[in-house]
Specification:
CATH superfamily of the largest domain in chain B: FAD/NAD(P)-binding domain
Number of domains of chain A: 2
CATH class of the largest domain in chain B: Alpha Beta
Distance between the termini of chain B: 58 Å
CATH superfamily of the largest domain in chain A: Nucleotide-binding domain of ferredoxin-NADP reductase (FNR) module
Strand order of the largest sheet of chain A: 11-10-9-8-12-13-16
Largest sheet of chain A: 7 strands, mixed
CATH topology of the largest domain in chain B: FAD/NAD(P)-binding domain
Oligomer: heterodimer
Structural class of chain A: alpha/beta
Number of strands of chain A: 16
Number of helices of chain B: 20
CATH class of the largest domain in chain A: Alpha Beta
Bound molecules: flavin-adenine dinucleotide, iron/sulfur cluster, FE2/S2 (inorganic) cluster
Mean pLDDT of chain B: 92
Number of helices of chain A: 9
CATH architecture of the largest domain in chain A: 3-Layer(aba) Sandwich
Strand order of the largest sheet of chain B: 3-2-1-4-14
Largest sheet of chain B: 5 strands, parallel
Strand content of chain A: 25-35%
C-alpha cells in the first residue's frame, strides 16, 4: 500500500480570509462521505493538529477539497503555503458520516465558513431526492462563499448578510423561523456555523418540533477518541465529537458549555498569533 | 541526591569491583549477599523538576557488574516466574557479572524486543523483583537484585555500541500481515512476523510511531530516542510503516483483508477513551484527561513554548486525580511546565497506589503534594467557565471486605476547598469504540475490550489482537508479550 504525499494541488482565495485548497490524498478521497473531516498539521515536529471538514472530493484526481478561514496561527500559516507544498500530517476521513435519507423537505443553514462543511451534506440530501432549501449567512457580501455551487443544486437559496450588502439584511434565524411557520415547514434542519449561530438555530426550530442536526467544531488533538479534548455534553451525557460526532441532535447539545470550552486557549493563541505576525512583518521589512 | 553523590556511587562501585576481580568473581552466597545494592544515579530533584531530561541516569558498567554479582544464581530461578515474558534473568545477569555485556543483551533479546523500555518502565516490584530470593533473604524487596536496571543497562550498552546487529529475516514468503497500531503490542508483532519472512505493514493513526511509549510516558522517564531507535530497526528490517492512517475510517479492516490482500491482521490499538469522574464542573475550561495533557506535552511538544504551535494550559496550581503511573506522569509534567504547586488526589492509601514505587518516590522528591484518602467531589469555576478550585472529600479505611481489603468510605461533612487553576483526570480508560463501530463480526465484552483466545485469535478469521484493547489498561511488557504470542499464532497460521 502506498500513500502519496499530501501535496497542495490547487489554491484559491474565496474571500478576504477564506481559502480553498485541493490536496492530494487519494486514499481519503476514496473513502470519505459527507459530514466527515480531516486533521492536518503543517509541521511534523512542532505543528498543531487542526480539524477541517472535507468540503468535496475528486476520486479521479485523488484529491480532497478543504475550505478554511484563516483565523489563527495554523490556519494563517496554511493559507500562506503555495501550490506544490506538502502538508506534514493529514489523517482522515474522520467522524461519523452524515445520515442521509429521503425525508421530504430539508433546510440547510450555513454561517460564515460553516457553509463549506455544509456543502457536501446539502448536496447529498438533494441527491437523495429531498426538496432542499439553503440559507447562507455572512457578515457582508465579500464573505459569502460557494454561492454559485449552492445555486446549482438547491431548490431555493436564501442569502442573508448582517449589513444587507447582499441578499436579505437579516440573521439566518429569520428566514428559518419563517419557514418553520409556513406551509412548507421543513422535515429536517441542518445547521453548521459558529456555535452561537447553531445555538440560535436550535432555539428557532425547537418550538416548531423540527428536528435539527448540528456539526460541532470543538478543539481536537488526536481525532481518534483517545484524549477527550473534544468532549461536549449532549442530552446530559459526555460525548466525544471526533468519534461520536461531529453531528449531533441539536436539541440536546449544551452549546453554552461548548462555547466556553472553545475559549480555552484564547490567551495563548492570541500570543502565538501576534508573535507570528510580528515575525512575518520583520521578514517583510527585510 | 547531588552530583557529588553520583560520583561517590561510582567510586564505591569501582573499589567493590576491584575486590570482585581479585576473587575472579568466585564468591560464596553470604559474600554475595553482603555486597551493597547499587543505587542508580539520578538527576537532582530540584533541577530535574524544571527540565525534561531523563531522571534516572542508569548504571555505569562498574555499577552494573557489582549489582549483577549480588545475584545468587538460584537453581529454581523464581524471578523468571515473575516476568510476564520469562526473560532468562539469571543467565543474562551472570553474563553482566563478568562483563560480557554482548552476550547478556543477546540472551535478553531472545525473549524481549523492548528491553531498554521495559527495564525502565516495568513495575518490577510486583513482577520479577518481588520473587527474587535475595530480596526475600534480606527481608526487603528493595534489596532484591535490581533486575530492571540491569536489563536497561544491557540494552543501553548495546545502543551506545553503534549500529546493533539487525535481526535476521527469513526469505520472503509472499504473505502480508497488517498491524494496526504501533504501541508495544503492534511493534512486537511487526518484528516477529517480519522475521518469519512475511511482509508487514504497520498502520498508525498518529504521525509518529510508538503508541503510549511516545505520546503518554514522558521524556523524563522514557527518552523518545529509545522508542525511535526501535522503530528505526523495524524500518531497516523492511517493515512498512504508514502514519496518519486510522483503520476503520481511512480504510475499514475488512477492506484490508478482502481487497488489499493482507493474509492476517493484528489489532493493537491500545485503550483510548479516557474516563471522567462524572462530577459537577468536569467540562470547565482547565479540566483535562491525562491523555490530552500528556499528548499535548509529549507528542506535540507543547512544552517548547514559542516553538510548538500546540498550546497547553499554563497553570500555577494543578490538581491531578488518580494514583497510577499516568497520574504520576501528569503531575510531574505539570511541575516541568511551570506549576508552582501540584496536588495529587487519591482515594485510597499509598499502599494501594498502582503506580511504580520509583515513580511515587520521584514524584514526592520533586515536590508533588499527596492527598491520600481524598476524593474530588466537584470542580468549581468562575463566570467565564475557568476552573478556580476543587472540592475534596476525605475518606477513611473501612472494615475489611470479603477479600480482606479495607475499602475507603467517605467521611460525611469533611469537604474542603483546594484552590487550583487546572484539574487533570487520570482515573483510567475505557476502550476505543472505533474498530467496534466499523467492523462486523468482532466480539467485544461489556467493557468494550476485544475478546480473544490465549494466542490472540479473535472471533473473526485471520484477525488477532493484543495489548490494552484486550487487557484493558495494562503494561508495556504485557502488551509486548501478547503481541509476541499473537505473532507466533499468525506465523503458524501462515505456514499452514
Ligand atoms: C469537525 C470540525 C470541522 C471543522 N471544519 C472547518 C472548516 O471546514 N473550515 C474552517 O475554517 N474551520 C473548520 N473547523 C474549525 C477549525 O478547526 C479551526 O478554525 C482551527 O482549528 C483554528 O486553528 P488556528 O490555529 O488557525 O487558530 P487558533 O489560533 O487555534 O484559534 C484562533 C481562534 O479560533 C478559535 N478556535 C480555535 N479552535 C476552533 C475551532 N475548532 N472552532 C472554532 N473556533 C476555534 C479560537 O478560540 C481562537 O479565537 C472545524 C472544526 C471541527 C472540530
Ligand atoms: C501516561 C502513561 C504512563 C504509563 N506508564 C507505564 C509504565 O510505567 N509501565 C508500564 O508497563 N506501562 C505503563 N503504561 C501503560 C502502557 O503504556 C500500555 O499498557 C501499553 O502502551 C499498551 O500497549 P498497546 O500496544 O496495547 O497500545 P498503545 O501503546 O496504546 O498503542 C496503540 C496505538 O494504536 C494507535 N491506534 C489506535 N487506534 C488506531 C486505529 N484505528 N488505526 C491505527 N492506529 C490506531 C494509537 O494511536 C497508538 O499509537 C502507561 C500508560 C500511560 C498512558
Ligand atoms: S521484562 Fe520487566 S518483568 Fe521481565 S525481567 Fe524485565 S523488568 Fe522484570
Ligand atoms: S531470584 Fe534473584 S537472586 Fe535468584 S536468580 Fe533470580 S535475580 Fe538472581
Ligand atoms: S480529539 Fe481527542 S478524543 Fe476527540
Amino acid at each position: 500500500m502506498t500513500i502519496k504525499p499530501y501535496t497542495i494541488l490547487y489554491k484559491e482565495q474565496l474571500s478576504a480570509s477564506v481559502f480553498l485548497m485541493r490536496i492530494q490524498a487519494p486514499h481519503i478521497a476514496a473513502e470519505r462521505q459527507p459530514g466527515q473531516f480531516i486533521l492536518l498539521s503543517i509541521n511534523h515536529e512542532y505543528g498543531e493538529r487542526i480539524p477541517l471538514t472535507i468540503a468535496d472530493a475528486d476520486t479521479a484526481e485523488g484529491s480532497i477539497t478543504i475550505i478554511f478561514q484563516a483565523v489563527g496561527f495554523t490556519t494563517k500559516q496554511l493559507a500562506q503555503l503555495p501550490v506544490g507544498a506538502e502538508l506534514a500530517v493529514l489523517v482522515g476521513p474522520l467522524g461519523r458520516p452524515t445520515h442521509i435519507e429521503k425525508i421530504g423537505h430539508v433546510v440547510c443553514v450555513g454561517g460564515g465558513v460553516g457553509v463549506a462543511p455544509l456543502h457536501p451534506i446539502a448536496k447529498a440530501f438533494k441527491q437523495a431526492g429531498n426538496r432542499l432549501t439553503c440559507i447562507l449567512g455572512a457578515r457582508s457580501r465579500e464573505l459569502i462563499i460557494l454561492e454559485k455551487q449552492f445555486t446549482a443544486f438547491a431548490d431555493e437559496l436564501i442569502i442573508c448578510t448582517d449589513d444587507g450588502s447582499a441578499g436579505r439584511k437579516a440573521l439566518v434565524t429569520e428566514p428559518l423561523q419563517e419557514l418553520c411557520q409556513s406551509a412548507r415547514k421543513p422535515d429536517l434542519a441542518v445547521a453548521i456555523g459558529p456555535p452561537v449561530m447553531m445555538k440560535f438555530c436550535v432555539e428557532t426550530v425547537r418550538p416548531h418540533d423540527v428536528p435539527i442536526v448540528v456539526s460541532l467544531n470543538t478543539i481536537m488533538v488526536d481525532g481518534t477518541g483517545m484524549c477527550g479534548g473534544c468532549r461536549v455534553t449532549v442530552g446530559g451525557e459526555t460525548k466525544f465529537v471526533c468519534v461520536d460526532g461531529p453531528e449531533f441532535d441539536g436539541l440536546k447539545v449544551d452549546f453554552d458549555g461548548m462555547i466556553r470550552r472553545l475559549q480555552a486557549y484564547r490567551p495563548q493563541e492570541r500570543r502565538m498569533d501576534e508573535e507570528h505576525e510580528c515575525k512575518l512583518s520583520k521578514l517583510e521589512q527585510r | 541526591m547531588s552530583e557529588v553523590d553520583n560520583t561517590a556511587l561510582q567510586t564505591q562501585a569501582e573499589s567493590l569491583l576491584q575486590n570482585l576481580k581479585a576473587k575472579n568473581f568466585q564468591l560464596r552466597g553470604p559474600e554475595r549477599m553482603a555486597i551493597p545494592s547499587q543505587v542508580m544515579p539520578v538527576q537532582d530533584p530540584q533541577e530535574r523538576r524544571h527540565n525534561t531530561s531523563e531522571v534516572a541516569l542508569g548504571y555505569s558498567p562498574e555499577q552494573a557488574m557489582v549489582e549483577a554479582n549480588r545475584c545468587l544464581q538460584c537453581k529454581n530461578q523464581p524471578c523468571v516466574e515473575g516476568c510476564p515474558v520469562r526473560l532468562p534473568i539469571r543467565d543474562f545477569i551472570s553474563r553482566i557479572a563478568v562483563g560480557d555485556f554482548a552476550q547478556a543483551i543477546a540472551l535478553i533479546k531472545e525473549s524481549s524486543l523492548l528491553p531498554a523500555v521495559c527495564g525502565r518502565v516495568c513495575p518490577q516490584e510486583t513482577q520479577c523483583q518481588v520473587q527474587c530470593t535475595l530480596g526475600k533473604a534480606l527481608k526487603d524487596i528493595d534489596k532484591s537484585v535490581a533486575i530492571g536496571r540491569l536489563e536497561r543497562f544491557a540494552a543501553d550498552w548495546e545502543r551506545t555500541q553503534g549500529a546493533g546487529k539487525l535481526p535476521a529475516c527469513q526469505p520472503d514468503t509472499g504473505k502480508k500481515v497488517a498491524v494496526i497500531g504501533s504501541g508495544p503490542a503492534g511493534l512486537a508483532v511487526a518484528a516477529d512476523c517480519r522475521r518469519a519472512g512475511h511482509s508487514v505493514t504497520v498502520f498508525e493513526a498518529f504521525h509518529k510511531f510508538g503508541g503510549v511509549m511516545l505520546y503518554g510516558i514522558p521524556e523524563f522517564r522514557l527518552p523518545k530516542a529509545i522508542v525511535e531507535a526501535e522503530v528505526e530497526t523495524l524500518r531497516q528490517m523492511g517493515v512498512e510503516l504508514i502514519p496518519n492512517f486510522l483503520v476503520g475510517r481511512t480504510r475499514p479492516l475488512q477492506s484490508l483483508l478482502e481487497q488489499d490482500g493482507y493474509d492476517a491482521a493484528f489489532i493493537g490499538i491500545g485503550a483510548g477513551l479516557p474516563n471522567f469522574m462524572g462530577i459537577e464542573g468536569e467540562n470547565l475550561v482547565g479540566v483535562f484527561s491525562a491523555n490530552e495533557y500528556l499528548t499535548r506535552a509529549n507528542l506535540l511538544k507543547a512544552y517548547r513554548r514559542g516553538v510548538a504551535a500546540t498550546p497547553i494550559v499554563e497553570a500555577k496550581r494543578v490538581a491531578v486525580l488518580g494514583g497510577g503511573n499516568v497520574a504520576m506522569d501528569a503531575a510531574r509534567t505539570a511541575l516541568r511546565l511551570g506549576a508552582a504547586e501540584v496536588h495529587l488526589i487519591y482515594r485510597r492509601s499509598e499502599k494501594e497506589m498502582p503506580a511504580r514505587v520509583e515513580e511515587v518516590s520521584h514524584a514526592k522528591e520533586e515536590g508533588v503534594q499527596f492527598h491520600l484518602l481524598r476524593n474530588a467531589k466537584r470542580i468549581l469555576g468562575n463566570e467565564q467557565g475557568f476552573v478556580t478550585a476543587l472540592e475534596c472529600l476525605c475518606y477513611e479505611l473501612g472494615e475489611p471486605d470479603a477479600s480482606g481489603r479495607r475499602s475507603p468510605v467517605a467521611v460525611p461533612g469533611s469537604e474542603y476547598i483546594l484552590p487550583v487553576d487546572a484539574v487533570i483526570v487520570a482515573i483510567g480508560n475505557s476502550s476505543n469504540p472505533l474498530i467496534q463501530q466499523t467492523t462486523k463480526g468482532l466480539e467485544f465484552n461489556r467493557r468494550g475490550n476485544l475478546i480473544c483466545g490465549e494466542d490472540g485469535r479473535t472471533s473473526l478469521a485471520k484477525v488477532f489482537a493484543g495489548g490494552d484493547i484486550v487487557l484493558g489498561a495494562a503494561t508495556v511488557i504485557l502488551a509486548m508479550g501478547q503481541g509476541r504470542r499473537a505473532a507466533a499464532a499468525i506465523n503458524a497460521m501462515l505456514s499452514e
